Amino acid sequence: MSTTRIEVAKTLKLYINGSFPRSESGRTIPVKDANKKVIAHASHASRKDLRDAIEAANAAQVKWAAATAYNRGQVLYRIAEMLEARREEFVTLVRTIEGRTKSDATREVDHAIDRCVCFAGWTDKIAAVLGGKQPVAGPYFVFSMPEPTGTVAVVVPDERPMLAMLSLALPALAAGNAVVIIAPMSNAPLAIALSEALATSDVPAGVVNMLTGIRSELCPWIASHRDIAAVAGARLPAAEATALELGAAENLKRVCLFHDAPKFDDDAFWHSPFVIAPFVEIKTVWHPSAL
Amino acid sequence: MPDSTFAYAPAPESVRPTLRPEYGLLIGGKFVEPKSGKRFDTINPATEETIASVADADAADVARAVAAARKALPKWMKCKPAERAKLLFRVARRVQERSRELAVLESMNGGKPIRESRDEDLPLVAQHFFHHAGWCDKLPFAFAGATARPVGVCGQIIPWNFPLMMAAWKLAPALACGNTCVLKPAETTPLTALMLGEILQECGIPDGVVNIVTGGPAAGRAITALAGKGVDKIAFTGSTEVGKAIAKSVAGTGIKLTLELGGKSPNIVFADAALDQAVEGVVSGIWFNQGHVCCAGSRLFVEESIHDDFIARLVRRMEQLRVGDPLDKNTDVGAINSRSQLDTIERFLQTGTTEGARKHEVSCTLPKKGFWCRPCLFTGVQPSHTIAREEIFGPVLSVMTFRTPEEAVQRANNTTYGLSAGVWTEKAARALEMSNRLSAGVVWLNTFNRFDASAPFGGYRESGFGREGGRQGLLAYAKLGGTR
Fold first, then answer.
1. Any domain includes A9
2. Tell me, what's the pLDDT at A1?
3. Is residue A175 situated within a structural domain?
4. Which ipTM did the prediction report?
5. Which residues of A touch B84 (CB under 8 A)?
6. Residue B83: how many CB atoms within 10 A of its CB?
7. Class at the top of the CATH hierarchy for domain B266-445
8. How many domains does chain A have?
9. What CATH number labels B22-261+461-481?
10. Would you call A145 an interface residue with chain B, using a CB distance cutoff of 8 Å?
């Protein structure tokens, strides 16, 4: 009798509204490691899965936005705590799938965890930095304040997906938006491991949803969906970027594809409040001021 | 009301904090015996029983603490801001974990009701560390266009009314900006700060970054005496009298100074206010924490047309306050912090009556041991009365009237202080305009005594200068230069 233990393979599903359903389409796609060996089968998200995720996100966003900024900060910090506990798993996944060295993979994972900590600290400071009282020339008390824009579709590029997913999702989340992350199929194991960490952190169900799918297939549907308020992406192929911007122009959803952005490990750019700004609306409130 | 059929059953808090019988000084990452060789007992003001023995630092001990802070400074300044942030986030989490124990200790050592230490002080302590942890790596956005550098070694002297909260308000922004600290807790309430010292060590704050010296006024003076000679910044919260003495002693040294001092804050109730809500606001404004609150709404201005009705409601509500064991979860008003503070309050009560105001006080019975004062209010107070001008720092409210909004503003601002102000009106335009006209660092509209780590707190005029909390609070702990 062989002494080799048969390992239990993980079924990769989607992450929608706090649960892990299979794609309604029943489709899967093989995921290969750096040596082209099939290591898993990922759910291939369909247009219907996208709609379900958006519906869940919109429902959850209202409560997430209503939570205090301090509370949201603690929840984002909790994500960092959960990721730290699974740090080795993420490093292994990055190495296996992308064939990178241990130190390179570790650097990316650590950077991603630290980015969560950074944005945990942004939630209760966004208003101080992006808003303020306005000294209008009249007897009015006027202040401008940032509010979340709604549900943000996060379109993740192929490069450094661990850092990319969090770099693009955290600014939107910090401001009180819900997100639907479109992760590349090639990195589905990583995206789902991240979803599992999110599911065991204190992030309310539906605030973060994860779809693994073929980006070029989903992009036009994201762009034309009326219940998505904004799209976040970076370092995407030109054709996909154009498809997003063209379709989004239909209902003027905000599209922020950070065209000139530096690489994701550039903290000066990716830790700044100006990566949050595209995902807030500034609301200016006027009130008379008189005894 | 102990004889009443409907008297409350006692609901004592059962947790007891883990305490050492004796505490040393936290210097360079170790609890050490004081060179002074002197110690004193710290007591529970509700029972007068000794809780622990603490060190009484002298000038040599303070010099040692400052030297330890100086030594720790270069490395701490160079610590990557994002890494510093992670240490402070840990502190916030650990405070949350140990908050029940800290709350009980705060009530034992300071006399405040457990309901307040548990629901107000401790959540704010954790929030201050959490909020400022987040600032560590965001200082470039707090001070647009300027480079923020640490000030250096900060001498921080804090009062006994919110012992742990004041420690957090001082330490969190200082550490976030990369400074090192020598903290002196108040003589009567050193214990929660010492427990915080243990927490900071548990969390890996490097040795010497925070040093805690316990003692009396001499230890405080020893810190300010080192201004410019090892101490680069003094932050003080306490009485205006001591604040002025500190300002004099550091004059000419070139160091940075922030003072959060006394107040005689107005709480203004218009006839169009939601009266029952206003009554609650006035109650929390003056009887929160036995009135040991620098921003207490100790001068009540009621629009003349509603004076009698409002005072009747207020007296009726005041009578419901439960005075007694700070560790009882039903207690509203706990013990006066110390014998000497009780003596001070009693002198003011005497003066109030002598000068012609009329006292209304709660008719409860007080415990036999400990320091207690019945919550009370004075009507018929004139602006010239002592109790209308001087800070009492006790559960004593002075009531006056006004006829027009302009008069309310004028009378409210007629003080040398300017810490806070409250306004009660259902007219939003009036509320906002009142906030423009009141000379106070914090204005509460239809609420009172609200605090948040993101909201700057501090005074105008003789209530001190500098702010604590939020982006503006960081200014006190940063040296701003060009883009060098």
1. no
2. 58
3. yes
4. 0.94
5. none
6. 12
7. alpha beta
8. 1
9. 3.40.605.10
10. no
User: In this structure, what CATH number is given to the domain that contains residue A256?
Assistant: 3.40.605.10
Residue the block writes with tokens 């106070």: B440
**Total Cβ atoms within 10 A of residue B144:** 7
B157-194 per-residue burial string, b: 16 or more CB within 10 A, e: under 16:
bbbbbbbbbbbbbbbbbbbbbbbbbbbbbbbbbbbbbb
Q: Which of B86, B141, B270 to mutate to test the interface with A (most CBs of A within 10 A)?
A: B141
CB < 8 Å to B432, chain A: 141, 287-289
* Chain B contact for A291 (CB, 8 A cutoff): yes
Q: Which of B342, B333, B52 is nearest to B214 (CA)?
A: B52
Which residues have a Cβ under 8 Å from the Cβ of B175 and sit 6 or more positions away?
Answer: B84, B88, B132, B181, B205, B209, B210
Chain-chain contact of B135 with A73 (C-beta, under 8 angstroms): no
| Cα Dmax for chain B | 73
What's the rounded Cα separation, in Å, for the pair B141 and A277?
A: 13
Q: Three-state SS across B235-276?
A: EEECCHHHHHHHHHHHCCCCCEEEEECCCCCEEEECCCCCHH
Supply B253's token pair. 């040294």
pLDDT tens per residue across span B1-28: 455 667 788 999 988 999 999 999 999 9
Tell me the C-alpha to C-alpha distance, in Å, between residue B411 and each of B120, B139, B377, B416, B437.
31, 40, 19, 12, 12
Tokens of A114: 């630290």
Is pTM beyond 0.90? Reply is yes
